[in-house]
Amino acid sequence: MQNVLCRILWVAVLVASVAYSYTITSSTLHEFLHSPMRILVNSTTTPITPADFPVFTVCNINLVSRTNQKALMFAGRNLSTYKDAKDVRH
Q1: Long-range CB contacts (< 8 A, 24+ apart) of 41-47?
Q2: 3-state secondary structure string, the chain?
Q3: Each residue's pLDDT tens digit, 9-50
Q4: Is the dihedral of CA 61, 66, 72, 77 positive or negative?
Q5: Angle at 46 between CA 40 and CA 49, to 5 degrees
Q6: Cβ(72)–Cβ(88) under 8 Å?
Q7: What is d(CA 74, CA 84) in angstroms, rounded to the nearest whole number?
Q8: CB 68 within 8 A of CB 90
């Protein structure tokens, strides 16, 4: 008898959960479908001349990142043997 009551309770909880989920989902969907939408598309054809650029730019002059330099040193490799900086930069 207790097993039947437990099953009835679980079915009631399941039905209540599904009903609550349906209520929340339907009200949220209704609000979404009936709310005004604003779509804004920025033009990509604007000329670049009115853009403000910085007076100067600071560039990194290091050809080798510190992480790769340490990795190569720990691997026992000599940086002077590389002909192109692209091999060790990244």
Answers
A1: none
A2: CHHHHHHHHHHHHHHHHHHHHHHHHHHHHHHHHCCCCCCCCCCCCCCCCCCCCCCCCCCCCCCCCHHHHHHHHHCCCCHHHCCCCHHHHC
A3: 999 999 999 999 999 999 999 988 888 777 766 666 666 666
A4: positive
A5: 145
A6: yes
A7: 20
A8: yes
Q: What is the pTM of this model?
A: 0.40
Q: Which amino acid is at 38?
A: R
Q: Which is nearest to 71 in space by CA: 53, 90, 48, 85? A: 90
Structure tokens of 54?
A: 């910085």
Cα–Cα separations (whole angstroms), residue 82 to 33, 77, 89: 61, 10, 11
